[in-house]
Amino acid sequence: MSTTAAASATAASTAIASAAIATRTLAVPGATLHFQVAGRGPVLLLSQSGEGDADRSVDLVPHLADTFTVVTYDRRGLSRSTLDDPARPVTMAEHADDVARLLAEVTDGPALMAGFSMGAAIGLQAVARHPGLLSTLIAHEPVMPNLLAEADRAEHLAELAAIRNAYAAGGLTAAFPAIARHLGIDPAHDETEGDLTPQPLTPRRRANFGFFIGTEFTAVTTNDLDPAEPLRAAARAGTRIIAATGRTTRPTVHTYRCALALAARLGTEPVEFPGGHNGNTAFPRATARTLKTLLGR
């Protein structure tokens, strides 16, 4: 093994060794949240996309835990984060308030946050509702139709409705092709890093998909947050917002266009992350390097 390779292996083993995970729960209005804490350093909250719970970050966390105190969680209604009333709708405001309460449990000061898709939209909502909560938010391809111009917004909403209708008619078998089209994913040519933890379609993941499509789509499509509000709140509080895209995401994908629209409002260029819309799970090592570079500035 070369000196460089040996050093890389040592660094990787150090990161993994430091990633002992503490599992905790937090009672919040209307729910009990499951969250996990690993590592040391500034607090970094990871908020996943789609049906993703804390376990979706299993391959990413070890490569961040040598630099950050990494917090991951199950959104209310997913996996181990149970709802007091499962029949009651969940709102984006509640998701944002959950983020604030979670961070209050682990830090006294502003935290870092990387949100992906749904997680990015929650992060923007949190910036608006809780100024000063975050020092930096990385918003990777947020699912936030309000960022788009009227015609594009209507297309984005229509795609989400088509996925929901497909799921209602034929379950996940019918919904998966619609989701893949929506996100520009070709499962037959989906590249990843090696040695990833398997993520089989377990009953729990199936239930999470059902909750995401059946309940959280409504939270997204009825969200009336003015896209200018997070930017105003960020400016007042000194929060840095970074719009991010996947390097291989197709430009026609609406969440990609949401990131471009956010960057335009910020007056910046979007930052590229490895892979496509789900690059943080497909390329966790490369994603960790990108996060360290951005958050170390």
From TrEMBL:
Tell me which SUPFAM superfamilies the record gives: alpha/beta-Hydrolases
Recite the UniProt keywords alphabetically.
Hydrolase, Signal
What does UniProt give as the signal peptide span? 1-22
In terms of superkingdom, the source organism counts as Bacteria
Segments forming domain AB hydrolase-1 = 44-148
Q: Name one GO molecular function term.
A: hydrolase activity
InterPro entries reported for this sequence: AB_hydrolase, AB_hydrolase_1, AB_hydrolase_fold
Name of the protein in question: Alpha/beta hydrolase
Organism expressing this protein natively: Streptomyces virginiae
